[in-house]
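Milestone 3.1: sequence recovery, worked example.
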């Protein structure tokens, strides 16, 4: 299969999360959240390069950076939005990688991506002409609010999925789509706006995105259960 590289947008401030440091540098089990996320991909044999995209290089931010491997190469080109950050990274990588290179874009604040979900994404899409994303079918009943924050209507959840990351597309296609649709809220929506239909690959509910401080406790519990399982406890 074509080589896979990973882009991890990590330049945001995490304003909803709050705290003394940006969310992606908050500690999870004594280790910065971003480091947990990087380790997922560093351990995978099909990942050629991993590019965390920061507002400045780690030394300029005063960050400890334990990833001496040449596979992890920070980029200092984060933009004001996720789409702009990913677009900046793709433009920086365009001279280094072929247009058909698989690019996996993953949220810095999703530290619980499992190896099985990552394998499933890569194996499902490796021969796909376009690519796709991890997602899970919605199970909760959905309500739309009115101006008084009361229920206006109940929505039909049939066929609705909650998008996750990684989202996996060819470098050339994704670069073109984000240039054309810079306001896209994720990579899939940029491809959709360009007329494509990305494939949905079954994700896992444990692949949660850290949004609020309480989410760190849930993520810690998920990681502890996995560690115990691997240790045979």
């Amino acid at each position: 299969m074509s080589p896979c590289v990973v882009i991890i947008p990590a330049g945001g401030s995490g304003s909803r999360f709050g705290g003394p440091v940006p969310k992606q540098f908050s500690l999870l089990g004594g280790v910065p959240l971003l480091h947990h996320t990087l380790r997922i991909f560093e351990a995978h044999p099909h990942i050629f390069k991993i590019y965390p995209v920061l507002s400045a290089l780690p030394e300029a931010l005063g960050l400890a950076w334990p990833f001496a491997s040449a596979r992890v190469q920070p980029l200092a080109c984060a933009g004001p939005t996720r789409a702009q950050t990913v677009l900046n990274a793709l433009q920086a990588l365009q001279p280094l990688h072929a247009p058909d290179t698989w690019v996996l874009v993953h949220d810095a604040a999703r530290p619980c991506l499992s190896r099985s979900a990552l394998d499933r994404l890569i194996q499902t899409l490796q021969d796909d002409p376009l690519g796709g994303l991890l997602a899970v079918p919605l199970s909760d009943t959905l309500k739309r609010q009115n101006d008084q924050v009361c229920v206006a209507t109940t929505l039909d959840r049939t066929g609705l999925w909650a998008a996750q990351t990684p989202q996996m597309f060819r470098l050339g296609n994704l670069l073109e789509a984000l240039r054309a649709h810079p306001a896209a809220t994720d990579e899939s929506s940029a491809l959709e706006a360009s007329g494509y239909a990305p494939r949905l690959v079954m994700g896992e509910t444990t692949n949660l995105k850290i949004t609020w401080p309480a989410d760190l406790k849930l993520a810690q519990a998920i990681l502890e259960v996995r560690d115990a399982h691997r240790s045979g406890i």
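The chain has one domain: 4-231. The first helix runs from residue 33 to 42.
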